[in-house]
Design a protein that fits this description.
The structure is a homodimer of 307-residue chains.
Chain A: E1 3-7, H1 13-21, E2 28-32, H2 35-43, E3 49-55, H3 62-69, E4 76-84, E5 87-91, E6 102-105, H4 107-112, H5 114-120, E7 125-128, H6 132-140, E8 146-149, E9 161-167, E10 174-181, E11 193-202, H7 207-217, E12 222-229, E13 236-244, H8 250-262, E14 265-273, H9 288-302
Parallel strand pairs in A: 1-2, 1-3, 6-7, 6-8
Antiparallel strand pairs in A: 3-10, 4-10, 5-8, 5-9, 11-13, 11-14, 12-13
Helix pairs in contact in A: 7-8
EC number (chains A, B): 4.2.1.51
Domain Prephenate dehydratase (chains A, B): 3-182
GO biological process, one term (chains A, B): L-phenylalanine biosynthetic process
Chain lengths: 307, 307
C-alpha cells in the first residue's frame, strides 16, 4: 500500500484533506512534523506523495508549502481538495456547555471562532495549543474542558464527544490543499483543470504586466496571483500563479513557452483537476482547433504549399 | 497625548513595530485583542491611529488587517515599519541552558526557530501559547522554563533575563507593519514613498493584465501583488497592490484615475514613506515635468493657441 505524507499531527485539517486527496486509492497516511520534512520524504522516495496546504487560514504554514515546493528537486501537484473552515467542539462525555471553563486550540482556529465562543461559551477562557489536534489531545488528557478541532479529530480521540459541529464565524470560507509528488505521468486533462507555476522575473517596470498579457492574449484565466520576495536573488521577483487549463491544452502550452522565454526561471507546479469541477471557458480564438488550424497553415506556407 | 491602538498583548512584535511607527511623537500605546477591534477604535475616534501587521510571518493575522481595512469606513496608512524576524530567549535569572526542559511561544514563532532549538536546546520540548508575549508571561508565572519572544518583551517582564538574542533560522527575514488612521491630510511626498490600493475587477480574462499595463505604461513599479477572493461578490476579484510613488506624483495620480475607470471599486489605502528609504526611479517619460509639459501642450491646443 503506498505511503502518503502529510503535515501532522493526526487529527488536523491537513489529515482530513489528505484523506480526501487519496480517496481513489488505498493509502497509508504518515504524519510529518513540518511541510519541508513531508516534501523531503516525497523527494527521497520514502513516500509516494504528500498532502500539503496551499491556502489554509486555520493552522498556517502556507508560505512553507510554496517555499518547499520551489526549493530543491522539483515536485508537482496532481490533485486538489477544498475543505470548508468549520470546526467541532469536542469534550468529555457528560460535560454540560455551562461546565466548560477552558477551550483549547491553535491560536488561528480560536481567532476564527471568536464570535461563536463569545455567544455560546461566554464564560470560558481560551488556551493555545500547537495545532487543532493538540487541543483535542489535551482535552483527552484532562488538561482542558473542550477543544475546537477539525471534524476528523474525533476519530483519533474516541474518548471525546462532539458537543457542537459546523462552527464558523464566517460562512463559506474554505482552505485549499494539494497532493504533491515527484514529476512523472501527468493527470489526464478533464476540461476542468488548473495549472500552477512559479515564475521569476526581473524587478523592472512592466515585466509582470507583459507576462500576464501573454496569458490573457491566449484566453487564459488567472485564478490566483501572489508575489513573494526572493531573498537570495536581488532585483528579481517571484510570482505564484494559478490559472484555468491543463499543460496538455494548446493554449496553455503556448502561454507557458512564452513565459519560459520571458522569465529567468519557471517552475511547473502541476496540472490537476479543479476540486470544484467548474469547466474552463475557452474562447474560439484559443481553442484546440484554432491552434491546430493556424499551425497547419504556417506549416503549409513554410513548405511552399500555400501563400 | 494621542492614543495609538495595536494588536496586543503588550510585548509582541506588533507592539515593538508600533513604537517604531510612532517614534516621532509622544503617544500612549493601547493593546487590543484583534486587528478589527484596533481598527474599529480608530474609526470611532477612540484612538488616533493603529499599528497593524501587513506581512508578518510570526504571529499571523495579516489577512485580518487587509480585510479589516477594506471593510467599513475607509482608513489609510501613513507610516511603514520593517522589523527583522529575530527572537530573544527569555528565562528566569540563574537558569542554565542545560536546565531548560520547556520552551513556550506562538506556534509560528516556534516553527521559525526550530533549527536553533534543535541545535541549542535539543532536550527541551516546545509549548504553544497564544502569542510570543504570552510565552514570556507564562515563564514569569513559573509555568515553563523559557520563552521565544520579541525583543521588546523583556521590558514587560523585568523578572526575566535574556538568555540568547538574535535567534533566527532564516537570515534577513522581515515583517512589515503600517500605522493606519482615518483619512485626512496625507504625509508629504519624500521621493521614496509607497502607495497601497485594493482594486476590485471583474473575473474576466485580461482585466488584471490591462490594469497592470496601466501602471507600467506610466513607469510605476509594483512591489507587491496578492489576489484575494471576494466571497460576497461572485465573478469579481480583489487585488492588493503596493507600488513605488506618492498619490501626489503626476504619474501615480494618472495611473490611479485609469484604475478607477477600469475597476468597480478602488480603495486608496495610503501613500507613505518607505521604511527602507530607497528612492523611486522615475523614467524621463513619466517625470513630473513630462506630465506638466504634455498637459500644457494639450491645454494650448484646446484653447486654439497651438496646432
Amino acid at each position: 500500500m503506498p505511503q502518503i505524507a502529510y503535515l501532522g499531527p493526526p487529527g488536523t485539517f491537513t489529515e482530513q484533506a489528505t484523506r480526501q486527496l487519496t480517496w481513489d486509492f488505498d493509502a497509508e497516511l504518515r504524519p510529518f512534523e513540518t511541510v519541508p520534512l513531508a516534501l523531503a520524504a516525497v523527494r527521497s522516495g520514502m513516500v509516494l506523495a504528500a498532502g500539503a496546504p496551499v491556502e489554509n487560514s486555520v493552522e498556517g504554514s502556507v508560505p512553507a508549502t510554496l517555499d518547499a515546493m520551489t526549493t530543491d528537486e522539483p515536485l508537482v501537484a496532481v490533485q486538489e481538495a477544498l475543505l470548508p473552515v468549520q470546526f467541532d467542539l469536542l469534550g468529555r462525555p457528560g460535560i454540560a456547555m455551562s461546565e466548560i471553563s477552558t477551550v483549547a486550540s491553535h491560536p488561528h482556529a480560536l481567532a476564527q471562532v471568536r464570535r461563536w465562543l463569545a455567544e455560546n461559551l461566554p464564560g470560558a477562557s481560551v488556551r493555545a495549543t500547537s495545532s487543532t489536534a493538540a487541543g483535542a489531545a489535551a482535552v483527552a488528557a484532562g488538561e482542558f474542558d473542550a477543544a475546537i478541532s477539525a471534524p476528523v479529530a474525533i476519530e483519533h480521540y474516541p474518548s471525546l464527544v462532539r458537543l457542537a459541529s459546523g462552527i464558523a464565524d464566517v460562512r463559506d470560507a474554505v482552505t485549499r490543499f494539494l497532493l504533491v509528488r515527484r514529476p512523472g505521468a501527468l493527470p489526464d486533462p478533464t476540461g476542468a483543470d488548473r495549472t500552477s507555476v512559479c515564475a521569476v522575473i526581473s524587478d523592472e517596470v512592466g515585466t509582470l504586466a507583459e507576462m500576464l498579457t501573454e496569458l490573457s492574449l491566449r484566453g487564459v484565466n488567472l485564478s490566483r496571483i501572489e508575489s513573494r520576495p526572493l531573498r537570495e536573488r536581488f532585483g528579481e521577483y517571484r510570482f505564484f500563479l494559478d490559472f484555468d487549463g491543463h499543460v496538455a491544452d494548446a493554449r496553455i502550452g503556448d502561454a507557458l513557452t512564452a513565459l519560459r522565454r520571458r522569465c529567468s526561471t519557471v517552475w511547473f507546479l502541476g496540472s490537476y483537476p479543479k476540486a470544484d469541477r467548474s469547466p474552463a471557458s475557452v474562447r474560439p480564438t484559443a481553442s484546440e482547433q484554432a491552434f491546430q488550424v493556424s499551425a497547419g497553415w504556417l506549416e503549409d506556407i513554410r513548405a511552399g504549399r500555400l501563400a
